[in-house]
Structures are given as structure tokens and as C-alpha cells.
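Incident review: delayed structure delivery

Summary: a single-chain prediction request sat in the queue longer than the usual turnaround. Root cause was a stuck worker, restarted by the on-call engineer. No data loss occurred. The affected request and its eventual output are reproduced below so the record is complete for anyone auditing the incident later.

Affected input:
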Amino acid sequence: MLEINNLHVSLGTTQILRGVSLSVPKGAIVGLIGRNGAGKTTTLRAIMGLVKAREGTLSLEGTDLTRTPAHGRTRLGIGYAPEDRRLIPDLSVEENLCVPAWAMGVKDVQPRLEHVYRIIPEAREFGPRRALQLSGGQQKLVAVGRALMSGTRLLMLDEPFEGVAPALSKRIAEVIGQLRGEGLSVILSGADLQHAGAVLDQVYRIDRGQMLN
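Output delivered after worker restart:
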């Protein structure tokens, strides 16, 4: 599904990623583990097209992502939930969920929404509430659902368990586990992915912008 080879990324004059390579098979759930500042977020942002690759290749089922703009990558079926969630506070939960589909101009918004509600029934319950009325953990759950609205082939979750109460961390892990039967490839990043240990097919470790395995 996703292949990254010898990826180098610099932010300004600082080199962040140094030859990162990883592979995510179709339908696999892969962990990317590293301490803060190790390069996890930059790797996900490079896949999403939010930072530019200076060197190396990224491909999604044969499509060269380095030649595809960020909005084009979303249209290819890549969904991304950043660590800070980035929900729009004054919009309802349902509106937040629909934003990616509206932005892409897709015609199957309602079926996509129903798909999210099937996997995350809490999101339907939260639907009319404004995003700012949710707890941090609830917002994380909604952010996963929002990423699913566009992530029909590859879903990337950055620090999904960070700052989340144990009960909600367990629930997020359950949701991620459900995706195994959807044929969806998933990348989880975190300093500690113990909550997702049971669902991970493979783990990559990164430190100082380089892979350790």
C-alpha cells in the first residue's frame, strides 16, 4: 500500500528526517514509535504533503506522492488526524466530521458519515454538540472519525492516546482494531503505543530522524 524509501526532510536549515524508510501493507496496522522530537509527526506530515520531501520516494499503491499536492493526497484516500485534533470549536461534531468530504466536493457524504457512525457510534451521539463542549478524549475520538471521512485507503493517527484518560484510550484502541476488517491501512504514532499493542501488525522505531530497525 504505502512505500517510503530514503526520505529526507528539512525544516528551514534543520534536517529533521534522515533516510526514513518504511512499508505499510494493505490492511495492516503499523506503529511508529519514538520520543518527542524523534521525527514521527514530520514523517506523517510528509506523507500528507504538509512538508516537502527533500530527497527520497513516497508512493501509495504505485502513485508517486511526491508529485501529488496535499489536497490531491486526500482525494487518493489518505486521512490524517493530527495530535492537536484541530476540530473547529463552534461547529457541531457532525459538521466537523463532514468538513473533509465537503472540502473534496464528494457526492457520498451521507454514506461516509454513516460508515463513521457505524464504527464510532459515540460520534452520532455527540453529533449535535459543538466540538468545544467535548472532553479532550472525546475530541480525539471525533478526530479519528473525521480522518475516516477521507481516509478510505490509508489512515494516519498522530499520538491518538496522548493526554487521553485510560477508558477512552481503550475505546480508541478498540475503534482502531475494528478497522482491521475494513481493508484499511493504518499508521499510529506515539511515544508509547501500549494501548494499541494488541492490534499492531508491525512496529517501526524512530529516533533523531532515523529509523532504528
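Verification: The chain has one domain: 2-211.
Action items: add queue-age alerting; document worker restart procedure.
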